[in-house]
Amino acid sequence: MDRHAAFARGNPRAWRYRPDISPFAAARDSSIEAQSALAGLLPSDAPLVLLEAGSIAVPPGAIVEKQAVGVQMVAEALKPAPSDDRVVPLGDADAAEMLALATLTEPGPFLSNTHLFGGFIGIRIDGRLAAMAGERLKPPGHCEISGVCTHPDFRGRGLAGLLSTIVANRIAARGEVPFLHAYASNTGAIRLYESLGFRIRCEVSVLALRRPSI
User: Fold this and answer.
1) Where does the record place the N-acetyltransferase domain (predicted)?
2) Which residues of 104-132 are buried (b: 16+ CB within 10 A; e: fewer)?
């Protein structure tokens, strides 16, 4: 959470992101103290999402709303980023359109202020936000590509691959390792990322948890 400290809620035993930015959370370890701290961060009106390699401990009292298997992919031999005049930076002024596109296409958790993670770029076609991609988790020396999505009206034009390549090369130019996540069942996305120079590093478990309603 070093680079995202301003977005954090919790304590050293368990952290979560601000609820308008991201549902991701993590406990320090599987100890009773850490798991109890994580349980204290659980909301009742929306899930917290845990993403880890291997199995995930469920904190006491938590309800498992969803579980899935994903893959973590890291850049191994990136394709060079092409130049495309259609690509524009996205920010606060585009937040409503970004949320609408992500809500429609479901690239992963995307909330009203997820764009504050920064680094988002997009392509507009006929004034509409056709596709976007950006940055999310930033562990030391690494940066995650996320929010990659294309409106159904504009699929099949290579927009997701183009934007992902640009974001990945920008991350690499900073001396960081680009990485990303995809559901293991999303073979189309995995093939796309492999074609861009990513390889599967490991499988990950995904759990969406919430507090029981009273």
Assistant:
1) 73-214
2) ebebbbbbebbbbbebbbbbbeeeebbbb
Q: Using H for helix, E for strand and C for coil, what is the string for 127-140?
A: CEEEEEEEECCCCC
Query: What does the pLDDT look like over 89-112, one tens digit per residue?
Result: 999 999 999 999 999 999 989 999
- Those residues with Cβ within 8 angstroms of residue 111's Cβ, 6 or more apart along the chain or in another chain: 19, 20, 21, 22, 23, 99
Q: Which CATH number fits domain 73-204: 3.30.9.10, 3.40.50.620, 3.40.630.30, 3.30.70.270?
A: 3.40.630.30
What residue spans define the domains of the chain? 2-68+205-210, 73-204
CA distances (Å), 100 to each of 106, 112, 211, in order?
A: 10, 9, 27
For 109, residues 6+ apart whose C-beta sits below 8 A from its C-beta are 22, 23, 24, 49
Q: Which of 86, 95, 106, 104 is nearest to 162 (CA)?
A: 86
R_g over Cα of the chain: 17
Q: Work out the angle at residue 183's Cα, subtended by the Cα atoms of residues 63 and 204, and round it to the nearest 5 degrees.
A: 65
